[in-house]
């Protein structure tokens, strides 16, 4: 699919992987809707790329519905959705102070998995009505999983479960949406230089990077964005989860 002149929605687009993706899509000619809870940073990204910002909590059904409707009114029906919104809360299932608080687990599942599903259902519904292109293409939906979905470490139970849900959601959604020409994919990034990791001491970041086989460094958000563009461009890629991790395989801890 050629994204030039088409509308794309990116969640979690105020920073990190989402911001890099929004920039790459805009550079490729897309009209980009920047969705995030952080209005200050989100508006800054939107202004930088000539897009539009819409405040959105992806896990809130009515709020996300309003944000999608506003984006459609302002920019047109989207041909692309990239789900980058997410949180990562570490904690053992049973720690020194007892079992993990259930609401802590529920929050990660709600934002990462339910939020991705929420945006998928709302945007796919809109995509049904767009003019089909080559091969009957009407849209592409890309969600962000993680290598933790496959090799979750100790303390990552909630995060790994949420990302594993995204992995498992990808194929059935692709099969369902095939009837109206919408492809569904996911990227499972490894260790990337995002605000979460950038807050760690430099020696810790260097140690993490050294554990990656090749190239021995943290991934760059721009490399995630490049994968998004490649997925959009390749009309035959569907129902797949692509690891983007420099051949990293996470150890238990």
Automatic annotation (TrEMBL):
What are the alphabetically sorted keywords of the record? Oxidoreductase
Q: Which InterPro entries match?
A: NAD(P)-bd_dom_sf, Sc_DH/Rdtase_CS, SDR_fam
Molecular-function GO terms, alphabetical: oxidoreductase activity
- Give the UniProt family note: Belongs to the short-chain dehydrogenases/reductases (SDR) family.
**Protein known as:** NAD(P)-dependent dehydrogenase, short-chain alcohol dehydrogenase family
Species this protein is from: Pelagibacterium luteolum
């Amino acid at each position: 699919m050629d994204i030039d002149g088409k509308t794309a929605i990116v969640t979690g687009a105020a920073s990190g992987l989402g911001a890099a993706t929004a920039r790459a899509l805009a550079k490729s000619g897309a009209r980009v809707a920047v969705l995030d809870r952080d209005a200050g940073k989100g508006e800054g990204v939107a202004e930088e790329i000539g897009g539009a910002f819409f405040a959105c909590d992806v896990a809130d059904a009515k709020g996300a519905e309003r944000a999608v409707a506003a984006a459609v009114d302002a920019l047109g029906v989207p041909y692309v959705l990239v789900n980058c919104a997410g949180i990562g809360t570490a904690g053992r299932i049973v720690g020194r102070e007892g079992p993990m608080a259930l609401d802590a687990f529920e929050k990660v599942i709600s934002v990462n998995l339910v939020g991705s599903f929420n945006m998928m259902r709302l945007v796919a519904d809109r995509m049904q009505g767009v003019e089909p292109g080559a091969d009957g293409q009407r849209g592409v939906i890309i969600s962000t999983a993680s290598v933790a979905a496959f090799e979750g470490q100790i303390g990552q139970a909630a995060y790994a479960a949420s990302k594993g849900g995204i992995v498992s959601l990808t194929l059935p959604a692709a099969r369902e949406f095939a009837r109206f020409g919408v492809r569904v994919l996911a990227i499972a990034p490894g260790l990337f230089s995002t605000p979460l990791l950038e807050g760690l001491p430099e020696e810790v970041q260097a140690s993490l990077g050294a554990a990656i086989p090749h190239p021995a460094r943290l991934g760059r958000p721009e490399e995630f964005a490049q994968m998004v563009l490649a997925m959009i461009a390749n009309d035959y890629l569907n129902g797949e989860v692509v690891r983007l991790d420099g051949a990293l395989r996470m150890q238990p801890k």
